[in-house]
Design brief:
By secondary structure, this protein is mainly alpha-helical. It has helices at 2-27, 42-51, 73-81, 97-122, 132-149, 152-157, 162-186; strands at 57-61, 85-89. Strands 1-2 form a two-stranded antiparallel sheet.
């Protein structure tokens, strides 16, 4: 736990800075603007879902539980007719942006602690006085993997457009660069 004493400032500042960068990426920068689209028949879809509201959860359509079911005639027909998709149903309450922002800050705080811990373990020789470039490389690599790799399976398995993944990859590179810069600058000597 010695790393917490030595790295508290870069971990805290990177959590704060990453929260700000992430917020700006989604609200100001243009690369996420077209990630989400309105269904052309949104009122009809909402009316249909309201008739027998599904509980919060993840849904797939056409639904099947095992790969062997893909050969069933009804499942084949459903895929041919379309549409094919995935749906996340949330709790029936309005989004709470302040609570969501707090959760995001906590996410970045936990992530920064993990990144700091890995950088501390990976630092050669004594942990103090590691060259800034060495620290930056370690932190950038771990942060990039942390922020980018988690969304890759969504594009592979769940139809998330690849353009959305690459927008997330851009965000991840910005977050990783900010985190690496802070850790390299504030690494204890």
């Amino acid at each position: 736990m010695f790393f917490l004493k030595e790295l508290w400032l870069p971990m805290l500042l990177s959590a704060a800075l990453c929260s700000i960068i992430s917020g700006l990426a989604w609200s100001v920068m243009p690369h996420h603007r077209f990630a989400w689209k309105r269904l052309p028949t949104e009122p009809d879809v909402l009316d249909a879902l309201r008739k027998d509201p599904p509980p919060p959860g993840l849904y797939a359509f056409p639904f099947y539980t095992a790969t062997r079911e893909l050969d069933r005639a009804d499942v084949k027909r459903a895929f041919e007719k379309g549409p094919v998709g995935f749906l996340a149903i949330a709790n029936r309450r309005r989004p709470n942006p302040p609570a969501m922002m707090l959760a995001t800050v906590l996410y970045f705080a936990v992530t920064s602690i993990g990144i700091g811990y890995i950088a501390w373990l990976a630092a050669p020789g004594t942990k103090l006085g590691v060259p800034a470039m060495q620290t930056a490389r370690i932190v950038f690599s771990v942060a990039l993997l942390t922020y980018a790799a988690s969304s890759l399976p969504d594009s592979i398995w769940f139809g998330r457009p690849w353009r959305a993944f690459f927008a997330q990859l851009l965000d991840a590179a910005l977050l990783a660069a900010a985190t690496a810069s802070l850790f390299a600058t504030l690494w204890p000597s």
